[in-house]
Amino acid sequence: ADNGPEKYEEYSAVIVDETEKMAGMINTLLDLSALEAGAAPLKAEQFDLVELVETVAGREFVDMDMLGFQLEYTLPDVPMVVMADPVRLRQVLHNFMGNAKKFTRPGGRIHIGLETTSNSARFFIYNDGVTLSKGETEAIWRKFQRSKSTANAAGSGLGLTISAQILASMGAGYGVRNQGEGVEFFFTLPQVIE
After folding, report:
1. Burial category of 63 from C-beta neighbours within 10 Å (exposed 0-12, middle 13-18, buried 19 and up)
2. Alpha-carbon distance values, 27 to 4, 21, 161 (Å)
3. In the chain, how many H helices and how many E strands?
4. Chain centroid to CA 30
5. Most confident of 6-15, 34-43, 57-66, 75-84
């Protein structure tokens, strides 16, 4: 009975799932390698960062009602024009927002914001959850550094590394800090003042 068609289908599904995970990790490593080598040049253009943040958040938090946490926004009513690669910045935003979703404590709060600081656009995303030690705030951007929590069991440990590489390539300031009952990830880009 253990070797019947049901078991065969179950084993096959596991093999396919693990193969897809491995292919995803290989593609991510190739992407990171290309970024590090400068073989994936960024395509800078002017765009509204407010609109990009709203678009990515709308996709990332479409299932918000089922997630059991509070989502807050502090976004300006006027455009914040930056010069950057919108495709790569979208990748950073997805990584930061996905990370916040994974590590927000049940019933906790995620706060997404954009603010102007001396002609710069500063994006931040805060989530209630576990705070980081000094060593963790430095190591979090390195390859394969990831939390041991069950929330991150499916992660590759590369999302934040790629985000750091993209932001560094754009000349953006970025970081993570403990704040309140959780952590805040952020980056800063110069605004295009017209």
Report:
1. exposed
2. 35, 10, 14
3. 6, 7
4. 18
5. 75-84
